[in-house]
Amino acid sequence: MKLFHASASPYVRKVMIVLHETGQLEDVEVHTVVTAPTVPAADLKGSNPLMKIPALERADGPALYDSRVICEFLNARADGSLYDGGWDTKVLEATADGIMDAAVLMSYEKRLRPEEKQWDQWLDAQRGKILAGCAALEARWMAHLHGPIDIGHIAVACALDYVDFRHPETNWRRGNDSLASWMADFESRASMAATKPG
Question: Is residue 190 within 8 Å of residue 16, measured between CB atoms?
């Protein structure tokens, strides 16, 4: 298999952590691409018509894309337990992915637009989504996060670390002491250290 990869992408990182946690890292060729919304990597087109990462080429079927699809495929391939929590696990993953979505949109606004054209209300709205997502994690999901590791844990850790990486001023830890404590423990996992964006 061949994974189209960029180290700073939180969606790619989710896939990489699943590969680590399910013992499949040696089964995948990691192909690093340089891509951006306005200048997608041309070699992605054959694997993902949307030219977005991650994309996973397989020998026995069409390429897979979207981190949720790839992660669930890899978990099933390894006969893993990352989706054993059912709908709760998937909703937790969706919440984390929503935090990632908002943080990535903030990154695009800040990095791709000239400063004089950046839309402050848009940035504030995305920041609000991040903080609302974190507040929901603190209020609703801590018991789940203290349970057996699943895709929800991985997605939440990737989301929070990406916010720290690109938008530390968001200060998601304020008022979310339990979530902050959980993250401090989870980020010490070997899979997190091995996939840390540089």
Answer: no
What is the fold, at CATH topology level, of the domain defined by 2-77?
Glutaredoxin (3.40.30)
What is the CATH code for 86-194? 1.20.1050.10
Q: Which residues contact 159 (CB under 8 A, 6 or more apart)?
A: 10, 96, 97, 99, 100, 103, 133
pLDDT in tens, the chain (198 residues): 999 988 899 999 999 999 999 999 999 999 988 776 766 677 766 777 777 889 999 988 899 999 999 999 999 999 999 999 999 999 999 999 999 999 999 999 988 888 888 899 999 999 999 999 999 999 999 999 999 999 999 999 999 999 999 999 999 999 999 999 999 999 999 999 999 987
The pTM of this model reads 0.94
The phi and psi torsions of 57 (rounded to 5 degrees) equal: -80, 135
